[in-house]
From TrEMBL:
<keyword id="KW-0813">Transport</keyword>
<protein>
    <submittedName>
        <fullName>Di/tricarboxylate transporter</fullName>
    </submittedName>
</protein>
<feature type="domain" description="RCK C-terminal">
    <location>
        <begin position="205"/>
        <end position="290"/>
    </location>
</feature>
<dbReference type="GO" id="GO:0005886">
    <property type="term" value="C:plasma membrane"/>
</dbReference>
<feature type="transmembrane region" description="Helical">
    <location>
        <begin position="503"/>
        <end position="522"/>
    </location>
</feature>
<keyword id="KW-0677">Repeat</keyword>
<dbReference type="InterPro" id="IPR004680">
    <property type="entry name" value="Cit_transptr-like_dom"/>
</dbReference>
<dbReference type="InterPro" id="IPR006037">
    <property type="entry name" value="RCK_C"/>
</dbReference>
<dbReference type="InterPro" id="IPR051679">
    <property type="entry name" value="DASS-Related_Transporters"/>
</dbReference>
<feature type="transmembrane region" description="Helical">
    <location>
        <begin position="180"/>
        <end position="200"/>
    </location>
</feature>
<keyword id="KW-0812">Transmembrane</keyword>
<feature type="domain" description="RCK C-terminal">
    <location>
        <begin position="298"/>
        <end position="382"/>
    </location>
</feature>
<feature type="transmembrane region" description="Helical">
    <location>
        <begin position="400"/>
        <end position="433"/>
    </location>
</feature>
<dbReference type="InterPro" id="IPR031312">
    <property type="entry name" value="Na/sul_symport_CS"/>
</dbReference>
<feature type="transmembrane region" description="Helical">
    <location>
        <begin position="529"/>
        <end position="549"/>
    </location>
</feature>
<dbReference type="Pfam" id="PF02080">
    <property type="entry name" value="TrkA_C"/>
</dbReference>
<keyword id="KW-1133">Transmembrane helix</keyword>
Length: 590
């Protein structure tokens, strides 16, 4: 093995450790790894940047726009409401929800689908007195199932497709993955409707936990008569930088101010609502002219009267807000919203709100004005867990154009009239020319950090292949499985890909495994297409942890889940998916 291959392998190992430890955003970590390989001369700039011209990566960017146009339609919400129906929350509701969600995820980006349907399902569960934890993991898994069904179901499939085209191979057809993934999908739905449903926990949602424990982190005080604070601003009164408390609302007569600007002038009898560490409430006792009302019970509903409303948001893994404090992000002034509490792994973080370092999967309870949801419903910084207001949906004509454009794109690509890339490009042009979306709106739908992660991962994959590191790893992989033959090689590729996707990201896992699978196929003498199908499904089949796949992370907080819940429900499902995939790939491509 050459010294270049050794450096590449060491770089990838360090990158994987950094990704697992979440030392920074995934796209930045992978970018730094690629830059290092370029600076050391292992990769020429042209080779390092090859991912930025990869057809699969560019197709993903175009499909973000197409999916965004379709998902602003209320048709999708109504479909899930109709699917759930008005019956009770028994396990029979699981397939009624999972089948349409899987169907939609086969053709649309599954992350926005889960974001859109999580509040819909929570609302349905609340009406039917069912724990959302019985439905939200199945929602995430249904989206994952659907993503493996078609070429455009998830970005992972398109990335592998693009890498195959770079190797002068034919690439995936629209439904090539279906022969393997459909049996696995059906088995998965049956499992979650029976055994899996019984394994699903009954947990309190983040919303219920916030409400139930409000008395533990909310406190209020009043401005007394003739108080020296009257006429002073919040800043002048020293109420902005308390040690452990955070001012989220001022109630002045019938007026409610939230978030509270530093220039607000205090008035007699103003009620001040604080959140944070109530153990530091002695700070308020030391402020002259401020009476702390320790015996008063404060309910969350009381905060959201008038113009102030409560919103729940989830921090995604690629968010620029992650790994920094709320104060560093200037959250209050930037979004005009006060953070009431932060929920992580089934519990509220016991700390001053402004000093909390946000992590992917955190659920934030916000107090804001009524325009907050409309302003930030398309935000890439956080996912809004509020039910869509039907009055704010786009006109029916635009919704129909978006849906027909999607269908037309699928038909053109599946009948090979145009390539997937050309079909997606044509679809975007149609959406813009018909004014279904604007150029500015199209830009907002694209997740550039995801594209950067994909492009940089492709560059690292190129380094694996060019230096012979992929061939070296493949030799060991094939020798380890020699005793069980080709089926052992397929199983080893699946297991290794699945481990990568659970601890890093599905896209990076697929790109790193591609050159290893290509080399392995050459050494055992089989069609590499079978191993590429294996990678595509294994990279998406992330069921054991909440961090391996974005949809699992989205439902983590709102469902009130523990990390172990995913292991308990997902481990049997992971074995089922592996057995079906390895068996079908062996039957079809070997």
């Amino acid at each position: 093995m050459s010294w270049e291959a050794i450096i590449v392998i060491c770089t990838i190992v360090i990158m994987l450790i950094c990704l697992m430890k979440e030392v920074a955003r995934p796209d930045f970590i992978v970018f730094c790894a690629l830059a290092f390989l370029m600076f050391t001369g292992i990769l020429a700039p042209a080779d390092a940047l090859i991912g930025f011209s990869n057809e699969g990566m560019l197709t993903v960017g175009l499909l973000f726009i197409v999916a965004g146009a379709v998902q602003q339609s209320g048709v999708l919400n109504q479909l899930v409401y109709s699917a759930l129906g008005k019956k009770d929350g028994s396990s029979s509701m699981i397939p009624r929800m999972m089948v349409p969600v899987s169907g939609l995820s086969a053709f649309l980006n599954n992350t926005p689908i889960v974001v859109m349907f999580t509040p819909v399902i929570k609302d349905w569960c609340k009406k039917h007195n069912v724990a959302p934890s019985k439905f939200l993991i199945p929602l995430s898994y249904a989206a994952i199932f659907g993503g493996t069904l078609t070429l455009i179901g998830t970005s992972t499939n398109l990335i592998i497709h693009g890498l195959m085209l770079d190797q002068d191979m034919a690439g995936f057809s629209m439904f090539q993955l279906t022969a393997v993934s459909l049996p696995a999908c059906i088995l998965g739905i049956l499992y979650l409707s029976t055994v899996g449903y019984k394994l699903l926990p009954v947990r309190k949602s983040s919303e219920e936990s916030f409400t139930e424990h409000a008395k533990e982190y909310l406190a209020q005080s009043r401005i007394t008569e003739a108080s020296p604070l009257i006429g002073k601003t919040i800043e002048e009164a020293g109420l902005r930088n308390l040690k452990g408390l955070y001012l989220i609302e001022v109630i002045s007569g019938t007026e409610r101010i939230a978030p509270v600007p530093g220039y607000y002038q205090l008035k007699e009898k103003d009620r001040l609502i604080f959140t944070g560490l109530l153990s530091t409430i002695v700070e308020l006792h030391q402020v002259k002219g401020l009476r702390v009302e320790t015996g008063t019970d404060i309910e969350l509903d009381e905060l959201s009267n008038g113009r102030a409303v409560l919103n729940e948001v989830v921090i995604p893994s690629q968010s620029p807000l992650a790994y920094s404090t709320l104060k560093e992000n200037q959250f209050r002034s930037r979004f005009q919203a006060g953070v009431v509490a932060v929920h992580r792994a089934q519990s509220r973080i016991q700390n001053k709100v402004g000093d909390i370092v946000l992590k992917p999967g955190d659920t934030l309870l916000l107090l804001s004005d009524r325009e907050f949801a409309e302003k930030h419903k398309e935000s890439k910084l956080f996912y809004l867990m509020n039910t869509t207001d039907q009055n704010e949906l786009v006109p029916q004509k635009k919704s129909l154009i978006a849906l027909f454009t999607l269908v037309g794109m699928i038909l053109l690509a599946s009948t090979n009239v145009l390539s997937m890339f050309m079909s997606a490009m044509l679809a975007v042009i149609v959406l813009i020319l018909t004014k279904t979306i604007t150029l500015e709106g199209a830009k907002n739908y694209v997740h550039f950090n995801v594209l950067i992660l994909i492009a940089c991962s492709i560059g690292i994959g190129a380094a694996l292949q060019q230096t012979g590191a992929a061939e070296f790893i493949a030799t060991y992989l094939v020798s380890w499985t020699a005793g069980v033959g080709i089926i052992g090689t397929i199983a080893a590729v699946y297991i290794l890909t699945n481990i990568f996707t659970e601890v890093i990201t599905n896209n990076a896992a697929a790109v790193l495994m591609f050159p290893i699978a290509l080399a392995s196929a050459g050494q055992v003498g089989i069609d590499p297409m079978g191993l590429f199908v294996t990678i595509a499904i294994a990279a998406s089949a992330s069921f054991i942890t909440p961090i391996g796949y974005q949809t699992n992370l989205i439902v983590y907080g709102p469902g009130g889940y523990k990390f172990t819940d995913y292991i308990k429900v997902g481990l049997p499902l992971t074995f089922m998916y592996m057995i079906v995939t390895v068996t079908m790939v062996h039957l079809i491509w070997v």
